[in-house]
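Anyone able to model this chain together with pyridoxal-5'-phosphate?
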Amino acid sequence: MSAFLHPFSPPRMTDFITIVGGEGAEIWDEDGNRYIDGMASLWYMNVGHGHPKMIEAITAQAKALASYHTFAPFSNPPAERLADTILELSPFDRGRVFLTSSGSEAVDTAMKIARIAQREAGRPHKTTIVSREHGYHGTNFGGTSAQGIPGNREGFGELVGEVVNVEGPDIEPMARLFAERGDRIAAVLSEPLQGAGGVFPPPEGYLEGLRALCDEHDAYLILDEVITGFGRLGSWFGAQYYDVEPDMMTFAKASSSGYIPLGGVIIGPAVTDALMANEGFSLKHGYTYSGHPIAAAAGNQAIAIQRDDGLLDLVPLIERRLGDGLRALHGDGLVSEVRGAGAVWAVQLPDHRDAMKDRDALLEQGVIVRPLGNALVMCPPLVITETQMDRMVDALATVLSR
Ligand code: PLP
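re: yes, here you go
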């Protein structure tokens, strides 16, 4: 057995598929089997595999300066440029950008910043973080504590205190919690469209409802944009797609298309003002690799490719081709529900089916989807072709009609 202990896998498992190459929306394994990467790896490979400009940018930065930290008093050009660019793309007219290496680090950073900003704003009693049923916020202790997927919280002992998970999907339970203890709530943490919990778009008016509750009670709204950020819905961020202005947004995944691990938090005006209110304050939070030059160079290049090649404009085409294809499966009675928006979709399987077995059968057809509960999820690279999308839908039809 190999020494590699895989994430989100049974430790006794041995029969992994060894991926050795990729191009565009396709990858291949060590035996030469080719697959359509219907999940953009793990929701992140927007620009497609093997992009020459990504490889060039990463190589050039590695030659210039592979790494130097950014704790005071140091900085580096790609990190500075990336933060400015990300702020420009965000809905905020001013603010700051904190850089991390993952979505989990981004979530924990946003939770900690929410609490410390409340303190700096003169509201030290506001420490409760509220998250939602079905929410997925990574696997560090903060994000684990905020998980709305019960299985992901179990067995890890006592989690972070004052983190409350609220049932959904309508706003009433959230409004009740605010009525009971709004004076203690520092922030609400919510994905714009819930991803890893099973692909649930927000109910009509839900995000606006969260915004209103946060405004009434001096709480911050944190949108976890780790999946939705950088184009998945056809806007740079879910905040713009759903037209709601948060106080902070977390990002990771498509920010670098995963070529180098990258994530962060975009901090809007209210939180920025709180952090800068007191002259003696210093942020005692950060990671060795915050602002890593190669990761930042990968981020700058991934954004440039998405902009120059108009990848966000492809999202409505994906929505039509893939979304309509999946709705046709529903019309044929092969799936019980179709959920999604933009370039992220799920089909709910009829109760008698086994999503794991269907995932495996699809692998044999050369198509990768992700089983979540009894749903199959799709989140392809934005460069996927119409032919590749049609092959995905055809493979689903073949497997689900057996
Ligand atoms: N937040 C959301 C919404 C996610 O979907 C994920 C990962 O899927 C994370 C946080 C955690 O990101 P990472 O796995 O990069 O730590």
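The CA atoms of residues 174 and 309 lie 41 Å apart.
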